[in-house]
UniProtKB/TrEMBL annotation:
Keywords: Dioxygenase, Oxidoreductase. InterPro entries: Phytyl_CoA_dOase-like (IPR008775). Signal peptide: none annotated. This is Ectoine hydroxylase-related dioxygenase (Phytanoyl-CoA dioxygenase family). It comes from Actinopolymorpha rutila. Pfam families: PhyH. One of its GO terms (molecular function) is iron ion binding.
Amino acid sequence: MTTRHGNGTTPAARLSAEDVARYHEEGYIAVDDVLTDEEVAELQRVTDNFVEQSRQVTEHTDVFDLEPGHTPEQPRLRRLKSPDKQHVAYDRVLRNDRILDLVSQLIGPGIRYKTTKLNLKSPEYGSPVEWHQDWAFYPHTNDDLLAVGVAIDDMMLENGCLMVVPGSHKGPVLDHHRDGYFAGAVAPDGLSGRAVPIELRAGGISLHHARLLHGSAPNTSSRPRRLLLFEYAAADAWPLTGGLDWDDFNAHLLRGDAVLQPRLTEVPVRIPLPTHDREGSIYEVQSIVADRGFGST
């Protein structure tokens, strides 16, 4: 479902009560026209420049994650890592008040960002992302966490838009392991029949709960699909895994104050351990999965 807020020049301001209820019931919502045409054009231009820069590398780096088949002649960049640290245009969108105002209606006024990434699907290719729950990667003390996807291009079914299973955020955390190792994907049995696409115009955003099952298919069209992803958490949601540096943790606060008392709620948790030896982006983590719902990478 998509909530329309304007004609491409009038930014979204607030979610309606019905929008908020739909998010809590179905686990996701989509909003068109959050960014202006000028902001979208800047993101497209900056992203094109990074694709050009990726011609200079032949294997993954701390900035570029490459598609199989990437060459200098035919660059296929599948992920720009930590885009907010690579260019101010991405950082501005991360901190965009129109986006944060919508996020605050869903997880509260105190907001911290967790991770940022830019996933790219090349025309007539584009690696799929297998079915998973973000929550499986980073369990917290409460589940007021969500991901915002900013559509840099029109995001449609044929170019590999986000697919979600409505209401799955209310269920258990499914097993994301294979052969005893965390693989970042669930068995796909029966999920395709329950899934719905989130289609957006460029400049729109999707917001989905951290426990919502989602994935995306390869791009079968002649058009790119570039999706800027920000993972936001309530300020009083603390991670249950990984080391924590106090200064760095609070440097990620976008709204609100540092919190010394995590808010504890009864949420299902599976720990994403042990890891296998192909660590890195989700594409690498999922590389050991044989039972695929969206095809091979």
